[in-house]
UniProtKB/TrEMBL annotation:
PANTHER family: CRP FAMILY TRANSCRIPTIONAL REGULATORY PROTEIN, REGULATORY PROTEIN YEIL
Entry protein name: cAMP-binding protein
Residue ranges occupied by any Cyclic nucleotide-binding domain in the UniProt entry: 16-128
UniProt cross-references to CDD domains, sorted A to Z: CAP_ED (cd00038), HTH_CRP (cd00092)
Molecular-function GO terms, alphabetical: DNA binding; DNA-binding transcription factor activity
HTH crp-type domain span: 150-223
Gene3D superfamilies found in the cross-reference section: Jelly Rolls, Winged helix-like DNA-binding domain superfamily/Winged helix DNA-binding domain
Transcription listed as a keyword: yes
Keyword entries, A-Z: Activator, DNA-binding, Transcription, Transcription regulation
Gene Ontology cellular component terms for the protein in this record: cytosol
Length: 233
């Protein structure tokens, strides 16, 4: 993995910081650190006292909650440019989920208390935070609608379309999804069993809509997947 020397210009990559003045960026830089997390390493555990906010400079992260039987329930997948966790501002609650690096990942790390002081001191950050939290609420509402209003196959295809839109890299009309997602992780994300996901993916493979390329999922025919989803409604 390429080694990075943390500079102030790295902060400008993040949409969250793009409206700041040079002086305000310097304030952020002064309280920030830079860390590398190796593949499969845990960044923080659910229930731990929260200590920092993370900005992904390079890499992929999953967040998940663990049920009483030890099963992972996926909360989100996060990529370059994302920040997390979102539900931890201005309260004393612990981390709401576990965060794990899916690949070697570089992150800008800002102490929680210092970050909260910046949000209050810099109007541009205050506005960005309000807009971001509103977006997260809408995402949760959409997720709840999918879980309660769709059958398993429809949820599965909706999940594939969502990660394709967010992470897919177009290559010759196909969408390559670089997220190393297992069938069990997908099952946990949509609230079903691995066997059900296996059947769904096999069905889509037989129709030449998707295929596997090592650990990567490839949407061979994005339009066919979208049409397939519409037919299930």
């Amino acid at each position: 993995m390429k080694q990075h020397h943390f500079t102030l210009d790295m902060l400008k990559q993040f949409l969250y910081f793009q409206d700041l003045t040079d002086e305000e960026l310097a304030q952020v830089y002064q309280i920030s650190g830079f860390r590398t997390y190796r593949k499969k390493s845990v960044i923080f555990h659910e229930g731990e006292e929260k200590a920092a906010i993370y900005f992904i400079y390079d890499g992929l992260v999953k967040t998940y909650k663990t049920d009483e039987d030890g099963h992972e329930n996926i909360v989100s997948f996060l990529k370059q440019g994302d920040m997390f966790p979102h539900a931890t501002f201005f309260d004393s609650q612990p981390y709401p989920a576990t965060a794990e690096a899916l690949v070697d990942s570089d992150m800008i790390v800002i102490p929680q208390s210092s970050f909260e002081q910046l949000i209050l001191a810099i109007p541009a950050l205050t506005k960005k935070t309000i807009v971001m939290m509103g977006g997260k609420i809408r995402e949760l509402q959409q997720m709840l609608q999918q879980i309660t209003g769709q059958d398993v196959q429809s949820r599965g295809v909706a999940f594939l379309l969502k990660i394709a839109e967010r992470y897919g890299v177009e290559q010759s009309g196909r969408l390559v999804i670089p997220v190393p997602l297992t069938n069990l992780e997908m099952a946990n994300a949509i609230g079903t069993t691995r066997e059900t996901v296996n059947r769904l993916l096999n069905q889509l493979r037989k129709q030449n809509i998707i295929e596997k390329d090592g650990s990567k999922l490839v949407i061979v025919n994005p339009q066919a997947l979208s049409d397939w989803s519409a037919e299930q409604r």
